[in-house]
TrEMBL record, chains A, B:
Domain Bicarbonate transporter-like transmembrane: 7-175, 203-511
Lyase found in the keyword field: no
Keywords, sorted A to Z: Membrane, Transmembrane, Transmembrane helix, Vacuole
Segments crossing the lipid bilayer: 33-52, 73-102, 114-135, 147-165, 177-202, 214-237, 276-297, 318-340, 389-413, 455-473, 479-497
Cited InterPro entries: HCO3_transpt-like_TM_dom, HCO3_transpt_euk
Gene3D superfamilies found in the cross-reference section: Helical hairpin bin
GO biological processes: monoatomic anion transport; monoatomic ion homeostasis
Lineage: Eukaryota, Fungi, Dikarya, Ascomycota, Saccharomycotina
Molecular functions per Gene Ontology: borate efflux transmembrane transporter activity; solute:inorganic anion antiporter activity
Protein name according to UniProt: Bicarbonate transporter-like transmembrane domain-containing protein
Topology of this chain in the membrane: Multi-pass membrane protein
Length: 544, 544
């Protein structure tokens, strides 16, 4: 009975979303599209170039700004035009940056050419994506619980802050102590201005709300521009040499070197036996498995997050089709020798948020669901690969990128569930009970009966340990295995924690990631009567 | 008839306050005295040593840490034990630092020995203080309006921030670019932690309120201690040499040099003709006039501010007696060759605030009015002049002092009337009307009728110009004349502005500094029927 459903997920997706294609174009005729494009372009670009610099430094210049721009541009156009959920922003993420340079670090001593090897990882990965999409296995997303998602968010923020520190240390090493401290100063000021703009825009009360929103939306890009200029302020800043973002020639790969397997420009020759040994082709399989799991997790969670209940979406999702598409872009990335893009957190949900239409009371009433914003930001990214824009990008000091990493990390911590649970531990209970501004999560945690609190502490400790463990492995020689650690804890959350925390309490603490209505869209066959527990039910049980 | 009242102010003060002397000692037996002493000790000490470093640099080491400590210690003990208002903290202020080094800069090229000259300024100043006290002229405080007070506060904050920047630049000059940028980094972090502690303690909701109060009270001293240790953190900080606070030998003057007129240790030989020319003795008179006006203004305003209506004080004030006492400490300072102390803002009001006793609803019910806190902080400051403590003080990096100046400046701006009026210009009116946290001042400004607003703009512009003018003159060769500029604008506020702004509006915008009940205590003869306009009356007029 079951096998006739194979491929049904993709077909269903096409059948459901297809009829909306024309409206996806027509609905773009809306004012909100303009600020949204500008906002998402910068929000996508800035972390991407920061990761580009990081990969550039750690792969002996194999990957650089042009590879990252190419990847982001392709992802924007492909997902903008073809995906079933064009609100999901796809691009170069922190995890893929770590994955890429750790593969480089592992394979370089073995003499394996980098690009053909990456190409095979991506090609195997493409096949695995296709298999997952064809067999409707994206439905298994429903077993991923909040535990892993929250830990992943926590892990990413640690990575951001660590990268910032690492890159600052590199400034000392390459440009000397004076330039190093100048970089620390710039990074600190950048953080102050970047986060200050958000605080100014959202917590303070200067100007009218619509002007304040400009500070929230464009504070970070404006800080990048300001501090890129600031280093030319003169005075003692003129006495130090500050490294800039490393760029190369327009539309060309950063490095054309036969040594790493890139002798033919953008097109990687990956024939086994000729450009890479047959053995290495198969060594790429386990890497591809790790990559596929990473993308399965990261992309689908991004997609889920850009269509949360709080955004009043009206058009259907298309998880199976999109995952097949992700396989395709992964394969193309391999052949072009660029890092493969996947769903971006927090860019994807921020993109949806930027398209929400509110009524006079600030209540969201609809979302401008269309394909233009995603596509256009991809096109603009492609334009950045022209000479003049590369020169402009090349003006950005690396210290500014460090500040950018800090801003992303701190913002992420501020919003992240793990950190907000830790904050709750230290918060004044009077405040949580009396202040309407206290997070709903805190109010809920404060309602946990005292004798049940120990389970919350255990759960939080497990999350903290898992996050730190995931980060710790990225510092070791086994760094590339970090998606495996993620997978391990995902299984723990599903099958192991219930031996530590009574099941009804675990259900309360750890809900399913996908919300009710999304899970329905993940499934391709009628529900088999299995009933999932949701927060509200578990809540009733606990308080009963 | 009038001359029989001469000296009556001082006598009245002694007669009124005298009977409380025993209770001033007895009332010190209260728990609040302990945290208050610790708090005011650091709050007084830290800016003092920052000014010490500044004077040290700008007077060729004539004044240094020991002179400043001696001055603060003497002031604490004398005013703690003998003054009529022992809550008023007296010490080395920013203006006297500016006054001192500008006198040095003016007189040094003339070959005048610095210490005998300062001694004569202070001796003349003492005489002038006595005259003012004897003729009850402290009563004229009532003609000083809010205009000058607010401008003075604004001016001081600009000076703080400017000093911070100046001292940072000096780090580049003396220790090189690397140490310079390291200092900037430390100063920035110091500001983040120092102000962050205040925000953490007053705006955020972690821990119980009494723990948060610790962050507010001790955040800045703890930051000083932390960052003094931080420079030994190692890494690249070990590669730079950071200048520390300059200290000298225990209980000895910083410099014993005949060239500047300090050949005999603490005791300055000031005999005319022998140690200083007779001409110079008389040149000291105009300087003494400026100094006297500065102290008249600064000390009495400090004293007023530490006995505002919001602090429920029960014991009487003693302005005339205290001003005579200030003349005495000024004279002694001259003879000891130390900068003369006077009333400190914001330390004086902060001191009273630290002694307020609240009921369960946080309403102030009384103040622990006693002599112990002021005296003890003076004694502790004296103890700092011992060898071991000087060594500890000598560990403090100058970068930390820069951070301290920034913190003082920013805190001052945040509380200052001029800046808060400027903030009002940019604030969202909806917020001011609806949010209970909006400053009462803003709510009041928002009630000004539209056709009257132009007078507010004019008034604020005049304040801004006056503040900037006062600061600007400190950058010129005529820096020492800045109290004259203060005096000039005081007269403008009294007699000139009314030709620009209609009198009833000016009355509304510019109230008397001294509140009703204080003015009564300033006057020594029955009121001659002249009626002063207060805010509330002017308010009624405007809204009518």
């Amino acid at each position: 009975m079951r096998q006739i459903l194979w491929g049904r997920g993709i077909l269903n997706d096409l059948r459901c979303r297809g009829p909306y294609y024309w409206s996806d174009l027509k609905d773009a005729y809306n004012y909100r599209v303009i600020p949204s494009v500008v906002f998402i372009f910068f929000t996508n670009l800035l972390p991407a170039i920061a990761f580009a610099q990081d990969m550039f430094d750690r792969t002996d210049n194999s990957y650089g700004v042009n590879e990252v721009l190419m990847s982001s541009a392709m992802a924007g156009v492909v997902f903008g035009l073809l995906s079933g959920q064009p609100l999901c922003i796809v691009g170069v993420t922190g995890p893929i940056a770590i994955f890429s340079y750790t593969v480089y670090e592992i394979m370089k001593p073995r003499g394996t050419p980098f690009f053909p090897f990456m190409c095979w990882i991506y090609l195997w990965g493409m096949v695995m994506h296709f298999i997952i999409a064809y067999f409707n296995w994206v439905s298994f997303m429903k077993i991923i619980s909040n535990f892993s998602c929250e830990v992943f968010g926590f892990f990413i923020c640690i990575v951001y802050c660590h990268k910032a520190g690492e890159m600052l240390v590199r400034q000392f090493e390459t440009d000397g102590v004076a330039a190093g401290f100048a970089s620390v100063t710039i990074a600190l000021l950048m953080v102050l201005f970047g986060l200050g703009a958000t605080v100014f825009g959202s917590q303070l009360h200067y100007f009218k709300p619509w002007i304040r929103k400009i500070f929230v939306d464009y504070g970070v890009p404006l800080s990048v521009i300001f501090f890129t200029g600031f280093i030319h302020f003169g005075g003692y800043l003129g006495d130090v040499h500050l490294s800039r973002l490393a760029t190369s020639r327009a539309f060309e790969p950063t490095t054309n070197s036969a040594a790493v397997g890139r002798a033919h420009g953008w097109f990687i020759h990956f024939w086994p036996g000729e450009n890479i040994s047959v053995g290495d082709v198969f060594i790429a399989v386990p890497f591809a498995l790790l990559l596929t799991f990473l993308f399965y997790f990261d992309h689908n969670v991004s997609s889920l997050m850009c269509q949360l209940k709080e955004y009043p979406l009206k058009k259907p999702a298309a998880f199976h089709w999109d995952f097949m598409l992700l396989g395709l872009t992964t394969g193309i990335s391999g052949i072009l020798g660029i890092p493969a893009p996947n769903g971006l957190i927090p860019q994807a949900p921020l993109h949806t948020a930027s398209l929400v239409v509110h009524d006079h009371n600030g209540k969201p009433i609809s979302v401008v669901e269309q394909r233009l914003t995603n596509t256009l930001q991809g096109v603009f990214t492609f334009v950045l690969m022209t000479g003049p824009f590369l020169i402009i990008l090349g003006l950005i000091p690396q210290a500014v990128l460090c500040g950018l990493f800090f801003i992303m990390g701190i913002n992420g911590f501020h919003e992240g569930a793990v950190i907000n649970k830790i904050r709750w531990l230290f918060l004044d209970n009077d405040y949580i009970e009396s202040d309407p501004d206290a997070l709903p999560m805190w109010k809920e945690l404060s309602r946990i009966p005292k004798h049940k609190l120990k389970y919350f502490y255990i759960y939080l400790t497990l999350q903290f340990v898992a996050g730190v463990a995931e980060f710790a492995i990225t510092l070791t020689r086994g760094a590339v295995g970090f998606p495996g650690v993620l997978l391990f804890f995902m299984f723990c959350a599903k099958w192991l924690w219930k031996y530590i925390i009574p099941e009804e309490d675990l259900e309360y603490l750890d809900g399913a990631v996908a919300e009710d209505f999304i899970i329905k869209s993940l499934e391709v066959h009628p529900s088999d009567g299995e009933k999932l527990q949701y927060d509200s039910e578990a809540d009733d049980k606990l308080s009963a």
